[in-house]
Amino acid sequence: MDISETAYFLEACKNHFYKKLKMGKDATVNTYACGVCHVSFSNQDTLKRHKCKEEKTHLCEMCGSVFSDITNFTAHMSTHTRDGTFRCEVCNCVFSEKSNLQKHVHRHVATKPYSCKVCESSYARMAHLKRHMQTHSKEKPFSCQVCGSAFYDKSGLRGHMRSHTGEKPFCCDVCNAAFSEKSNLNKHIRLHSGIKPYSCEVCGSAFSQKAHLEKHIRRHTGEKPFCCQVCGSAFADNSNLKIHMRTHTGEKPHSCDICELAFTSRSSLKCHIKTHAKEKPFTCDICNLAFAKRSYLKNHIRTHTGKETFPCDVCDSVLSTKKNLKRHLQTHNETCDMSCDMCGSEFSDRATFKAHMQIHIGDKPYSCEVCSLCFGSKANLKSHIRVHTCEKPFTCHLCGSAFSEKTNLKRHIRVHVAEKPHSCHFCEKAFSNKATLKMHLRTHTGEKPHSCDVCGLRFLMKSSLKYHMTKHGGEKPYACQICGLAFIVQSALKYHIQTHTGEKPYSCEVCGASFIKRSHLKRHTQVHTGIKKSYACEVCCTTYSSASYLKLHIRTHTGEKPYSCDICNLSFSVQSQVKSHMLTHTGQKPYSCQVCGSSFSSKSNLSRHMVTHTGEKRFSCNECGTAFLYRSTFQIHMRMHSGERPFSCDVCSSTFISKLYLQRHMRMHTGENAHPCQMCSASFLDKYALKLHLRSHTGEKPFSCGMCTSAFSTKSNFNRHMKMHTRLQHGKNLES
After folding, report:
1. What does the domain layout of the chain look like in residue ranges?
2. Considering only CA atoms, which of 258, 302, 288 is closest in space to residue 276?
3. Read out DSSP for 627-658?
4. Per CATH, which fold does 608-735 belong to?
5. I need a surface site. Which of 9, 50, 163, 656 has the fewest CB within 10 A?
6. Is the pTM of this model over 0.90?
7. pLDDT tens figures, 299-313
8. Please, what CATH class does the domain formed by 140-213 belong to?
9. How do the residues of the chain divide into helix, strand and coil, expressed in percent and rounded to 5?
10. Host H or E run for residue 433
11. d(Cα 407, Cα 435) in Å, to the nearest integer?
């Protein structure tokens, strides 16, 4: 192709130009280029209007902008003086030039005559179409020399350079806020004027920016065009995708100047800074509770108004926030998208799956600076720190009670309002939340959905199964620093420590009795209230206040003993009995008497022993006046008067007043002497007889007389001896 060049010199602007005439079959276009900056133009008139930066002589003293043409300079000055003469009849926006008004009107009339041949997108201006075409070619010819970022057009590069120089030439006349882009200033001005020209056709919501409207429409359509290439998560807008990608890269560009904590987004940093300043600018008009975020206040107000605007289409449940509704819908969705490769557990949401995986990998990246305890999530660490600081930021507006956890406050508020909307159709008991009702219904249906893979034992709750699994592992990480006794869970250690300190925080308002656990206090108050015992035994008609008590009682009839000792295979009907029994193998006796120093394996044995020091016999017989130290002995004694013998022998039909007598009798039929003496060949039916026999070998005489030096190996001999002193004393009194 032949090219002929013709040089030009323009005296008006002192610039050199040359005309490139493309010769050939299709060469019909003449291009004109500036000899100084080499910018090309399609016609000579446009070239005449062109001036290089060196020739820009009109300087704006307000913002420093320089213009080569007096017309552009005048139009620019009107942006500062607001001397606008062209007004939009639709939204009352004012413009300094008619051409700008015409461009603006296109937004309202929605005429977009310029369409893309590739994707059929339409635009109101040819310049916008040209800019759009570059997205298909992916050509970004303008690059930043500072950071290397590339842009489709020169204006984009010019705006980007201001991010390096910090230049903000566009100022708001109302609040003096400065901006690097004129478009950002126009968006900002709408905050003052309240103009929202972009409205949603679905719900009628209005927006000041077109981008906000597009983002809003995606809520109706559910469209999420921005996908993460790492994990496949989808987002409605690109900014959320950028923040999400930082969770994979670990990038946290926004750091706090006070504590150097870093965050993935600027909004998270902004919210964090308020924790240092203790700033809570959003206050509830009803209870004066303050919040750091407007969204927190909005959710809080629903607790007063009862307004719940997000109903579930499946079960008619109503949720207070859209986030809660989304989480609730996952309970109905039977498809579990994510499964654990280690244990096979399935999860419907990513957050729960992520938290579960930390259990296997043992990842606890958040550690307490006070006690070095580690946690899997930041929220758990935050809650734990309140144990050290004794901080209770959640206050009840009705009674002033303070709580360290928000969930505890919510649970407490239901005590005041007495709100229990979920009732059981079996026993008419009411509950404050649906999850508790669901758990309660299993006590009626007998459903136990959680089973142990090791021993097959089934449980009502997942937490009970989790606690049970620790027994197979044998791990007891929580040890008492006073006596060394170890526990599987931290709550058990907490209650155990109270046995050393004597702390009983729960007291009865009627009689003043104190208890370690709230459940013990609740059980005690039934003595005063005379609560209805609606659970009756079908065998002996004994009634109980709860199904669990009835279940334990039925085992006395059936003889069921589901709990066995792993060492000697001895079986028990109650799990607590196994725990007490295990101490006989380990030799541990954590409960000691403060009077004589004797140690015991269980608290009940210590309580029974303490009566021997006080000598108090609280249980007296109305028939003969005999008093007893223990209730069990008193009950056996009363059967002697009533003639009741509930324990019968299956071999000879003999009956007995206590189970112990029946067990001793059964050994006569079997010939079993379960307790042999290790010093001689003698064997005995029961353990107590062996204990008395061993004293004949050891010479032990624990019962000593306080009036003389005599000592005895058995209590019966001691009592017989004491009666001799009584008779002698009585005879002396008669002689005198």
Report:
1. 140-213, 608-735
2. 258
3. EESSHHHHHHHHHHHH----EE-TTT--EESS
4. Double Stranded RNA Binding Domain (3.30.160)
5. 9
6. no
7. 777 767 655 567 777
8. alpha beta
9. 40, 15, 40
10. none
11. 14
